[in-house]
Amino acid sequence: MRALKSLCLLSFLILAPVLSQAADDDLAGKVSRIQGAAMAMQNALPRPLKVGDAILAGDVLSTGKGARLEVTMIDDTVLTLGEKGVLVVSEYAMGARPNAALRLLQGAFSAATSKITQSADASFLVNTEVATIGVRGTTFWGGVLDGEFQVAMLDGKGVYVETRAGRVELTEAGQGTKIAGLAAQPSPPKTWGKAKVERALATVGFSN
Prior knowledge:
It is built from two helices and 18 strands. The protein is an alpha+beta fold. It has one domain (27-202): Jelly Rolls, CATH 2.60.120. It has a nine-stranded antiparallel β-sheet with strand order 4-1-6-7-10-13-14-17-18. β15 (159-163) and β16 (166-170) form a beta hairpin.
């Protein structure tokens, strides 16, 4: 236990000046809510997260069993990661051509986009193991439900879901699609019932 504490302290001392510099250049957002255990990792150095902590471009975010992590990005977009989730914030930048590039490696997540998608030149992409999700300004959910990766548009302008085999557009609130695998075409958009939407949202919902 003493050795573990010493290692954690050493990691913090090494990482603190790096975070101070990176926070100015690569700040992507801040933790706005947390339930259970969550951490960020950058350059193989983990840092446990708490409310108010900075999230940086390049961070790999992960959550433990029963955990939830909410991050408010620099443009007020809100990302929520469910339990046992892994999400990479590859890039998140405003400016002349706003760009968000995320990668969901595990678990379920939701996003309510804000200023970043208001520009005609903006790009907001979420890559997953089976598909790419493109966002045009919306609230949406993605994750495994009933044994398959699925995506639902909950509100907003639209979402497209693309694989090697094809692409579908979700243009109405409540529409969803599912993807059987990397080489499979997304299923045609279908309006989800209230019960299914509630089951999806429960995977990212806070209990407190």
